[in-house]
Design a protein that fits this description.
Helix content: 25-40%
GO molecular function: ATP binding
Bound molecules: adenosine-5'-triphosphate
Strand order of the largest sheet: 6-7-8-3-9-10-12-11
Main location: membrane
Distance between the termini: 25 Å
Shape: globular
Number of domains: 2
Radius of gyration: 21 Å
CATH class of the largest domain: Alpha Beta
Domain ABC transporter: 7-258
CATH architecture of the largest domain: 3-Layer(aba) Sandwich
CATH superfamily of the largest domain: P-loop containing nucleotide triphosphate hydrolases
Keywords: ATP-binding, Cell membrane, Membrane, Nucleotide-binding, Transport
CATH topology of the largest domain: Rossmann fold
Order of helices and strands: EEEHEEHEHHHHEHEHEEHHEE
Number of strands: 12
Subcellular location: Cell inner membrane
Number of helices: 10
Structural class: alpha/beta
Length: 328
């Protein structure tokens, strides 16, 4: 861990308990986030992205449970903190933005009241006028017109895109060091999505806030992130700088995701899909879990799960990586 490391995740495991036993939705995730860094966590539905994000800040409820690993924030293991200590951290030094802004916003309170509460819960000595001004500035920062009067509106008086901006403004209020954002723009139309991505990136850069952006969309990652972690069946199967990974994927799964991106095919050509379905929690293969869908699979891939390999800054889990001259 270096002095620029904000978050260091080692071997994180999160299980869901069922009558048939415990199944690992997150299966040994390692991740390092530096101060101010933007990381895209990408993968198909069910790969374990959200469960990873929620596990980092102690938001996993039964039947789920974090069963292994460390989540070191400034070197302190968040898994060792009490619920009260975690609550102190959340909404202050670490913030979460959810896909549905109504998970953040209380429908029966005016937006201004909720924003004031977000400040005063953590900093009760803040003078009211100063807190209100900060709320106003935060709304203006995320592009909400006439912020002063909007503080007196209820969440239902905002459009979906504006509501998500309010949720982002609340997340940014106390200038967190880390934001975990779980697909916050997925439900929005592409123009609004692009604006919000641009604003988030700008705010994070200005405030040196690190961001883990969970998404199923590599296009979003390309726009926003410095590094990308590609997740499949509970594991990070490839990690590296965005440009490098998108231009020269090493893992066949990353290559498949890239080939299935709209715009990756020639005009008139059919989009390539990754064959087969992502495995369910209870239906994972032995050995490499991507093997049944992998065009390069070899019988030996069934023997054991590929360990993490490293070339330069790139990490991957594959016995037959797609190593071109540029990546060697
Ligand atoms: N409360 C729960 N009970 C049982 N299994 C769960 C629960 N929540 C998540 N899972 C399982 O954990 C696995 C990972 O889910 P997760 O929501 O993290 O995926 P994801 O990659 O974020 O997908 P999506 O993009 O659809 O949100 C899935 O197989 C899911 O069915």
């Amino acid at each position: 861990m270096t002095d620029t490391t904000l978050l260091q995740v080692n071997g994180l495991q999160t299980a869901f308990h069922t009558e048939e036993g415990a199944w690992l939705a997150v299966d040994g995730v390692d991740l390092q986030v530096k101060k101010g860094e933007i990381i895209g966590l990408v993968g198909e539905s069910g790969s374990g992205k959200s469960v990873t994000g929620f596990s980092l800040i102690g938001l996993i409820d039964p039947p789920g449970e974090v069963v292994g690993g460390e989540v070191l924030f400034h070197g302190q293991d968040l898994r060792q903190l009490s619920e009260e200590q975690l609550r102190q951290l959340r909404g202050d030094r670490i913030a979460m933005i959810f896909q549905d802004p109504l998970m953040t916003l209380n429908p029966v309170l005016k937006v201004g009241e909720q924003m004031m509460e977000a400040i005063l819960t953590h900093y009760p000595e803040t003078p009211k006028a100063e807190a209100r001004q900060r709320c106003c500035d935060a709304l203006a920062q995320v592009g909400i017109p006439a912020p002063e009067s909007r503080l007196d509106n209820y969440p239902h008086e905002f459009s979906g895109g504006m509501r998500q901006r309010v949720a982002i403004a609340i997340a940014m209020l106390n200038k967190p060091e880390l934001i975990i954002a779980d697909e916050p723009t997925t439900a929005l139309d592409v123009t609004i999505q692009a604006q919000i991505l641009y604003e988030m990136q700008k705010l994070c850069r200005e405030q040196n806030t690190a961001l883990i952006w969970i998404t199923h969309d590599l296009g979003v990652v390309a726009e926003l992130a410095d590094h990308v972690a590609v997740m499949y069946a509970g594991k990070i199967v490839e990690y590296g700088a965005v440009q490098a990974v998108l231009q020269n994927p090493i893992h066949p799964y990353t290559e498949g995701l890239l080939n299935s991106m709209p715009g990756s095919a020639q005009p008139g050509a059919r989009l390539q899909q990754i064959d087969g379905m992502a495995p369910t929690l209870t239906g994972r293969e032995q050995g490499c879990t991507f093997r049944p869908r992998c065009p390069y699979a070899h019988p030996s891939c069934a023997q054991s799960a590929p360990p993490v390999e490293q070339i330069g800054q790139r990490q991957y889990r594959c016995y037959f990586p797609l190593l071109k001259e540029e990546t060697k």
